[in-house]
Amino acid sequence: MSAYRRAIERAKARLEVNPRDAGILAFTADYYAMLGQGKEAREQLAQALELTSTDADVLFRAAILHNHFGDTEKTIEYLDKAVAAGFSPTVIRDTPDFDYLKGDKRYRRLLPSN
Q1: CA–CA gap between residue 102 and residue 97 (Å, rounded)
Q2: What is the pTM of this model?
Q3: Between 82 and which of 23, 26, 46, 87 could a Cys-Cys bridge form, CB atoms 3.0 to 4.6 Å apart?
Q4: For residue range 45-74, what is the model confidence (pLDDT) as tens digits?
Q5: CATH annotation of 2-110
Q6: H/E element, 59
């Protein structure tokens, strides 16, 4: 847990330099999620998505966050958006967080066929 707190502090320092860094905001959202701080996580994610709703990495982080909080619909929605924006389906397939989705046809549609 302290690693996530340290990561948040480092991210805050970077955001003081560039408060419009959507990538840092998205990662910070995930750090808050890992600490169980849903309100803060969602606020950081909303800021990131407001800055860029087409960045593949930010969209993937959004999927991770929604997955953490058990929202399968939003998880798949953001995975779909991430792939459409150029995120690697192979990385998605190899991310253990999504293993439980392997039976979901919407999820399988996003993955490479081999």
Answers
A1: 11
A2: 0.92
A3: 87
A4: 999 999 999 999 999 999 999 999 999 999
A5: 1.25.40.10
A6: helix 56-68
